[in-house]
Predict the structure of LysR family transcriptional regulator.
Amino acid sequence: MDWENIRFFMAFVETGSTASAARELGVERTTVTRRMQALENDTGLDLFDRCGGRLALTAAGHNFADATRPMVEAAREAARCAAGMRPGMRGRLKISAPPALAKARLIDPLLSLGRRYPELELQITGEIGFASLQRGEADIAVRLSRPQKGDLAISKVGSIAFRLYGHRYYAEQTSEEDYRYIGQGDVPDAMPQQVALNRIADGRFSCYADDLDLQLAAVLARGGIAALPDFLAANRDELMVVGSGEPLITRDIWSVTHNAQRHQERIRRTIEVIRSALR
């Protein structure tokens, strides 16, 4: 049985479509389809239901995915171990971080690191969810929540205070009882600062925005008060803290990498750069 066919099959299983699998693997969509058809020929199993113009796993497909998943994880672990044993500051390094934080605090120091080590190829992804380190989506993830599971090396690299901010004109011209607020929305995974804001706002929202940059834009447009991190409001004279001025909430920032890679020089040095940038 051809291992490459299994690898393409599992990429489809994990991403949910041939198009997404092709993007992850860096190949044409037709290559993914051809590889999966070859796997069906190899196994003699009907792994896919092709009704309705959309591929879905059959019961045999689900069972085969469960059987081969440990092989894929073992191959990824071997790749991580090999990467961890390669010395020096070279090769591609994937870093995942919340977009607003990456733009405001991390881009400049990471680019400086890249200039010092021109053989180091940095790939920076803006993401607030947990990137799958096991699948190689990130070598280092910067997160505001501490992961609770996985074979991961986790360290605290900083903290962020969130306060209530408004446009100076809006805050000075509007009585506190008439304040309107800018929230994340009624979502099951609302950020902690938004949960705290919901208690204060008591339903008095002018709009909802699921991104910090959009919330900042709404504040700058004098749309209301939002719970923003200090770094996003820094050096903006048009903004002012409202209320007591005390942090609404303070969140820790964590760097996360796989245990197999934690001693790799490029991982260690990059995490130190991130730590210094967030002090």
Remarks:
- The chain has three domains: 3-85, 91-157+252-277, 160-250.
